[in-house]
Structure prediction request, 291 residues.
Amino acid sequence: MPSLKDLRNRIASVKATQKITKAMQMVAAAKLRKAQAAAEQARPYAERMGKVLSNLAGGIAAGGQAPALLAGTGKDDTHLLVVCTAERGLCGGFNTSIVRLVREQANALIGQGKRVKILCVGKKGVDQLRRNFERNIVDIVDLRAVRQLGFEHANPIGQKIIAMFNAGEFDICTLYFSRFKSVIAQIPTAQQLIPAPLPTGDSALGAVAYEYEPEEEEILTSLLPRNISVQVFRALLENAASEQGARMSAMDNATRNAGEMIKKKTMQYNRSRQAMITKELIEIISGAEAL
Prediction:
């Protein structure tokens, strides 16, 4: 049974931890507002660019020479998985949920005889994927020094993906990130970048026919590379908001758990102290009666 001193030290330690988790929760809540606003503002532009590309692609799908980023290589032997995770931990299952999705799809591709390459954006994704896919990781992008995400941070990643595609290093590229829904809900998402997905079903039937100047092929040649950087930028913004939401929720749970532990240890301390006092009283009374 722990002594009173041990219990006091334990209670003091948990109280100090509770102060830290509470402070981290407040910081995450403050950062979340800005990150959520940035992610929501980026969605319409990225979604609209995707619709324009789909419309352009639909116009030349039946005939004409489609750019390589749209048509692909015609094969699916090598897959590049671009995994966006956080640079820091203490955010619950945020990083694990993204890595779990990547691991499932990577294992499925390897099981089909495909070759898998992984480009990691974020330290935590690298730490987890190294356990099973260390040989598949081809490059790591470190954004720990970045305080405010901007397009200038996403554009080099997009250019690297395009350079690898032009060098024939992969056939299909898929982007993995966590889409922000709410503080308690972040949705792991897989989005194909190369080749650009064509409209299907109702979206294809409802596409409006436009006349473009210059021709669709020339517009796509200029727009497709930029779209890759835009989608990567959107993924980074969605991840930033999801990370802060997950951290806020995780630190709130940690603060609550610390409070419950403090109550439990305080009760144990009081009972132990009362037992010691009662024992001393019994010894004093017994000694007095013996005299």
